[in-house]
TrEMBL record:
Signal peptide: 1-27
Cited Pfam families: ALF
The protein's name: ALF repeat-containing protein
Biased composition range(s): Low complexity: 31-43
UniProt xrefs under InterPro entries: DUF312_ALF
UniProt KW keywords: Signal
The organism of origin for this protein: Streptomyces fimbriatus
Length: 200
């Protein structure tokens, strides 16, 4: 079984570009979204319902998940267990196991964010709220959008402190005032790079 799985994994990896064109559920560059997890539970990405997929189609669908470099330990573990099991085990993984394993990996990712000493109040608040809600959808939503928005909230607070700091130079204050209403990416770039370029 391991040799067969290895051969199939190599084939699935080699065919990934073609597979991604026909299977958007597995084409995300980031960790699978709640939409892709839901799609995986219903079809193989080409419209075939999981309950109607052949054993080979089930294996290929799971191997696509394994080939995704963003698949976490929980997903990899459950996917491999499904491949070692019966056809019904593979169906169960695609219908519900994948979603639950992804939620397990998402909890770990959120715990790492909470353990980061640089996480601000907004991030901590939203991360804890996602963990308290404790649904796969809430965990995924935090990682996909909530984290970015909470980080932007914390970044605005940090930039406001720069504006209020009497030791900030006029140039730094001007740059901070210009960016404070910017996008999350602009706020982060200013704090990580831009502020040092102004005073550099």
């Amino acid at each position: 079984m391991r040799l067969t799985r290895g051969a199939l994994l190599v084939a699935a990896t080699a065919l990934t570009p073609a597979l991604l064109l026909t299977a958007p559920a597995f084409a995300a560059d980031t960790a699978p979204s709640s939409t892709s997890v839901a799609t995986a539970s219903e079809t193989d990405g080409s419209g075939t319902p999981v309950d109607e997929m052949s054993e080979e189609e089930l294996r290929i669908a799971i191997l696509r998940i394994l080939a995704d470099e963003d698949s976490g330990r929980g997903v990899v573990r459950e996917a491999n267990e499904a491949l070692d099991g019966t056809v019904e085990d593979m169906r169960a993984f695609l219908k519900t196991g994948y979603r639950l394993a992804q939620a397990e990996d998402d909890r770990v990712a959120i715990a790492r964010i909470l353990a980061d000493p640089d996480s601000g109040r907004g991030v901590i608040r939203e991360a804890n709220e996602a963990l308290d809600t404790n649904t796969p959808e809430a965990l995924r939503a935090f990682l996909e959008t909530g984290y970015r928005l909470a980080q932007a909230e914390d970044d605005r607070v940090a930039i406001a402190r720069i504006l209020a700091d009497p030791d900030s130079s006029d140039a730094l204050r001007a740059a901070a005032a210009e960016v404070i209403d910017g996008t999350p990416e602009e706020l982060r770039h200013f704090l990580e790079v831009g502020r040092y370029e102004v005073d550099g």
